[in-house]
Design goal:
heterodimer; A: 316 residues; mainly alpha; 14 helices; 80% helix; globular; B: 307 residues; 4-stranded antiparallel beta sheet
Amino acid sequence: MQAYVIRRLLALIPTLIFASLIVFVSMRLIPGDVIDMMLAQNDISTAQDRDAIEAALGLNKPVFMQYFDWIYGVVQGDLGHSLWRNTPVTEQLAESMPITFELGFLALIVALTVALPIGVYSAIRQDTTGDYVTRSFSLLMLAIPGFWLGTLVMVFPSVWWRWSPEIEYVGFFEDPVRNLTHMIVPAILLGLAMSAVTMRMTRTMMLEVMRQDYIRTARAKGLSERMLVVRHGLRNSLIPVVTLIGLQAPLLIGGAVIFEQIFVVPGMGLLLLEAVSQRDYPVISGVFLVVGFGVLLINLLVDLSYGWLDPKVRHQ
Amino acid sequence: MSEPLLRVEDLCVSFRTDSGIVRAVDCVSLHVNQGETLAIVGESGSGKSVTALSIMGLVGDSGKINQGRILFDGVDLVALRESAMRKIRGNRIAMIFQEPMSSLNPVLTIGKQVAEPIWLHRKKSWTQAYAEAAELLAKVRIPDARSRLDDYPHHFSGGMRQRVMIAMALACQPKLIIADEPTTALDVTVQAQILALLKDLTRETNAALILITHDLGVVARYADRVAVMYGGRIAETASAADLYANPRHPYTVGLMRSIPSLTSDAGSRLYAIRGQPPDLANLPTGCAFAPRCEWAKDICLRSPPSL
């Protein structure tokens, strides 16, 4: 078990290197580099200025040298400095990462509390009105783009009821209540988007499992339908559902970028968006490194959870 | 003679399928006395499994008991509410299924699955139920039973799993055990062991056994009485000895002649009943067996002859 985890963690390294390489190169291929922007902002445009800034930021070296410099720093825990603010990237990440993590975690809780019970309900009440309603709802959530729904939630309540979601961020440990009232709306929207697929998967798997012979055996023991579902059905149907949740992890990050922007949540998504529009290379690379690591870690956790869910996996 | 433990009267069960309503069981009457072994014999689709599932109240959503009574210990199970039926299932009537490989829950330990009915019906604590489960596993001759409580089904072979199923069925000392082709999916060598075990244990607890099978060899060896089913109906009922000595229904005669014999000449062709089993969605009006029967007369096509 321990050896397995260590092996899996080591396997993350090549993946992360490859991902960082792609991000590093592709960022520099986007038209309009950071120097152009700085020059435009400061209304100076001579060639000397350009060279001076380039040299100061270390961007005059060949790209692969820049990459090796960056990797050299990463190994030592230094992700470089923001080109604009000159603050260490690690510092910016340390501030924004917990916020995004909180948003993702809340969204996941929302997604699961919606998806699992509704998925199970929909399966055991197959082809009833309740089933159709919940399935239509999930399709709707799947079809509606998050940015559109987010904007609606931001705009319409303020027009109709003079209420709008909180947009001033307060740290969780400063004032948990205010923090949660701020976070809950984006978390619900993000969670609902995630819940759609999860719910459908739960329903499908539950239907499949409830047809199995061992459910008939359990029924022949005299168990009630509720016990059949909870004790004999649910765990068997959870394995693919958990896989799906792992696969949705990148979606969660993508969603976070949009919702953090709309609801002014100063997390990694907002940081990334700013960094991309300003071509702040080290910040972008840093965010992607953390996101990549996070996604891979979630998938590792998913793989490990199979051992808990499926005894056959445990013993192999 | 006193009232039998189980009396099925005029039971009719139909299923909704894509090709219309199928009468899987058509006016079946049978009875089982306490401590007796009744074999129900017939080919696939003859309605034997559906009869068993009806007794358990497990015909499912697509099936429907149209008429008839199932009297168990004087109580009509057909009229019973689901909640009351649950108290009987696994407690006073238990069932063993055909597929030991898929009939156990893969994510629950053997101990938990065997202890479950004891916990449920006898209202014992899990600890106590586990202790009884260990005894049950020892009783079905699973070696080292206590240490195997925490194992999962995939650690067991097919024969061992069927033993677990038997242990589970015996958990609450039921009055009636229904075994639906319990050995069909097993090795021939294991089949005899399992059936002998089942017979021993039911004798020990004086439980009645309904043994569903298509194997006439099994019937001869283990059954007291036999009901032969064909096309959803009972073709004939007899004591096992009588059935072999003097089969009355042409279908039974055909079945008997289809058994390969050690004394028959080498190279001689094995007898087979001609034709196909009837389509239950489309049963003939007369005797269901008439189209395949060697002795069929015109009247058989209009109404089933009495034997």
